[in-house]
Design brief:
The protein has 439 residues and is mostly helical. The chain has one domain: Growth Hormone, Chain: A. It is built from 17 helices and no strands.
């Protein structure tokens, strides 16, 4: 199946699959701090920034461990069955997380959800299979838009449907009163089941198996070893190595904010779950506009490399400014800041993935292997980003000077500045600099 023959329906289903995966990642963000606070208080814990970071890191740790496994398995078995397996896992572990009664139970459920959502790398490989350089960036933009929509819907569902018994009489004296954060998780499970049936019926296979006996082992221990081996091998390549490091720095800085943002809005601005969800709604709508509508024309005019650089710089400035929003004009200034973050991220992601995929094709590597390695590298950064945010927050909140509630966000800016500077070591080919899209 070539890039020009890929059906609109298949790409639409893939869009839904990635969107559901991102709902699973983002749904907990607006209410996680409040959920952890409830569980920690019941267990006699007073500081919970670390647990917020751990909960997000567990998801990414599972992605780091399982992405190469799913990527290699998809090279053998095909992309479709792996994508379906991920959706089944989503349906189960979303609900279990919402019914968690202890920090450990919630942590395990979150880890298992991340293990099954590690097939995002397979979705990216699917796009690589069915695209050529004329439409690669545009279709990576479709994936980016799915990320944006999922990251909009997830937090919005998480915020608006948290603690429904306190908002609507319909949920009084029901299971949703006992488990105040179950309803958004159940909604996410239902969406995942719908996506599962659509994938079974409408998503054609893009990768056909062969008898190559040299494929990566599926043994879990060997897979762990291969993660390090593959990372070392790719990092040693002048182009791909620099590209992977850019991704690691960007994602590390970006995800420090994931653990500390709601801590800041609750502590510094008095936001509740729904207000946090609405902030992410704004972020996602802007991302949808850029990645779903504008990225093709912008890339055609400016090129992927310039967009990647400008996206990194704009996002870094926005992250740095989070703790400096005006308390008098909180929604105006917060909107400006998060639009900068969203715009920068929306320019960076599809541009980066287009450059990485094109370079992978130039050097003749397996798309599933490289995308799995890239996803592992990004997930590795996402493990330490939230942990860093939670730990620094616990150490710095209520303090002044160099170490303050602004420190975590300034650290975000420094990481993205490093990613921005590193991009000038990447020498782009003509195909990376400018994409001539089919209208």
């Amino acid at each position: 199946m070539t890039g020009t023959k890929t059906s609109t329906g298949a790409l639409g289903v893939l869009f839904l699959v990635v969107m559901i995966d991102m709902i699973g990642f983002g749904i907990i963000i607006p209410f996680l701090t409040y959920f952890i606070e409830d569980l920690a208080t019941a267990e006699g814990l007073l500081e919970f920034g670390l647990w917020v970071g751990l909960m997000m890191s567990a998801y990414s740790a599972a992605q780091f461990l399982f992405s190469p496994f799913w990527g290699s398995l998809s090279d053998r078995m095909g992309r479709k069955p792996i994508i379906i397996a991920g959706l089944v896992g989503n349906s189960v572990f979303f609900t279990i997380f919402g019914m968690s009664t202890s920090l450990i139970m919630a942590l395990i459920a979150r880890f298992m959800a991340g293990a099954f959502n590690a097939n995002i790398a397979v979705a990216k490989a699917y796009i690589g299979d069915v695209s050529d350089h004329l439409n690669l960036a545009k279709r990576m933009g479709l994936i980016g838009a799915a990320f944006g929509v999922g990251f909009t819907i997830g937090p919005f569902i998480g915020g608006e449907f948290s603690n429904p018994a306190s908002k609507w009489n319909l949920f009084t004296d029901t299971i949703f009163a006992t488990y105040p954060y179950l309803l958004p998780c159940v909604i996410a499970s239902v969406l995942s089941i719908i996506s599962l049936f659509l994938a079974i019926k409408w998503l054609p296979e893009s990768k056909f198996t062969d008898n190559d006996a040299s494929k990566t082992s599926l043994n879990p221990v060997k897979q762990l070893s291969s993660i390090v081996f593959d990372l070392k091998r790719v990092m040693a390549m002048p182009q791909l190595g620099n590209l992977l490091m850019v991704s690691v720095l960007f994602m590390y800085g970006f995800t420090i904010m994931h653990a500390s943002f709601v801590l800041f809005t609750e502590w510094g601005l008095g936001f509740d779950e729904a207000e946090n969800g609405r902030v992410f709604l704004l972020i996602g709508l802007n991302g949808l506009l850029i990645q779903g509508v504008l990225i093709g024309k912008l890339t055609n005019k400016f090129g992927s490399m310039k967009l990647m650089r400008w996206g990194t710089l704009i996002c870094g400035i926005g992250l740095t400014l989070i703790p400096h929003v005006s308390t008098e004009f909180v929604w105006l200034t917060m909107s400006i800041v998060v639009l900068m973050i969203s715009t920068g991220n929306s320019l960076f992601q599809p541009s980066y993935m287009a450059i990485l995929a094109q370079e992978t094709k130039h050097q003749g590597y397996e798309m599933g292997l490289v995308m799995g390695t890239q996803e592992s590298a990004s997930a590795f950064a996402r493990i330490f980003g939230p942990l860093t945010g939670g730990i620094v927050w616990d150490l710095s909140v209520n303090k002044t000077g160099l170490v303050s509630d602004a420190t975590t966000f300034h650290l975000c800016g420094l990481m993205l500045l490093a990613a921005f500077l590193l991009q000038f070591r990447i020498k782009a080919s003509n195909e990376m600099i400018s994409e001539n899209f089919q209208e």
